Amino acid sequence: MRNKVLVVDDEQSIVTLLQYNLEQTGFEVITAMDGETGRDLAEKEAPDIIILDLMLPKLDGMEVCKQLRQKKVLIPILMLTAKDEEFDKVLGLELGADDYLVKPFSPREVIARVKAILRRMQVTKDEYQAKEEEISEFIQIGDLKLAPEQYEAYFKGELLELTLKEFELLLYLAKNKGRVLTRDQLLSAVWNYDFAGDTRIVDVHISHLREKIERDSKKPTYIKTIRGLGYKLEGQKEND
Question: CA-to-CA distance for 14 and 90, rounded, in angstroms?
Fold first, then answer.
């Protein structure tokens, strides 16, 4: 079965160029010319990946990304930005984008990024399946419970509102409970590529996780900062 790509861009020439090259590579392509239509198609068609322009009529790319993540639509998003457009990569990733690419770009580069993102998604799914017996249905650490197959996390029985990257970061910390993980390790493991060494992305996501699972985010008992090194997740499993 072919992977389905949703291309959302208000420049017809870019849509045509991407659609032609993606279809030649074997992808099924659907398109939208504004943010509202793109958002609706993402929910209705459930593509495998979204190529999303930043500047769009009706809803800009950041707002589309934000609304999809709020609705638990976890489809990976490759954000497109023009060279002279103001784009905060940390904010973009914080809102749920998985990668970004600056215009002008070659179709070959877009296809390579799309394939890389889809490959990472498949590897992640395969890892979850391979460890299913080892971790059983849930990972339980204190009042924190994670359901990897459902991409859900609970704290004191309440479902946490997490972005995809927040969940993946929390899951990676949980799988490595008690181990000190550097920011670079977390960046590589969760974002799967060297993001120009910008470890602020990790710190932003750690801060958000603490707000959701710590009684006092300034005195964390779960996600500890190891000065000069990185972070580690602590806590007692049930019946330990």
Answer: 25
